[in-house]
Amino acid sequence: QVQLVESGGGLVQPGGSLRLSCAASGIIFSIYRINWYRQAPGKQRELVATIDNIGYTNYVDSVKGRFTISRDNAKNTWYLQMNSLNAEDTTVYYCSLVMESTYWGQGTQVTVSS
Known about the structure:
Blueprint lengths: L2 E5 L2 E3 L5 E8 L7 E7 L6 E7 L4 E3 L7 E6 L4 E6 L8 E8 L3 E3 L3 E5 L2
Parallel strand pairs: 2-11
Antiparallel strand pairs: 1-3, 3-8, 4-5, 4-9, 5-6, 7-8, 9-10, 9-11
């Protein structure tokens, strides 16, 4: 059984930064990729950032240059560093781990407001 736990969300002022973490427990092997998604109420889920098993990263255009996805394989923990946050970044963020199956965390709320 694989479990993912996100943390690091919260309230931040516009222009501020947050670092989200996604910690995995259980049997972790043959990771294909790690994704960070976000989904606002009433909207479709959006793939924000992804990193594959060789470290290739990709980002949705709206976060390029502001967000950075990274990983610490030894700790089975992955991160999303978010800088220059704005109100449009306010929503719940989810990590997902893609192996032979896909696993999801419970989500962490990010609120950007003055």
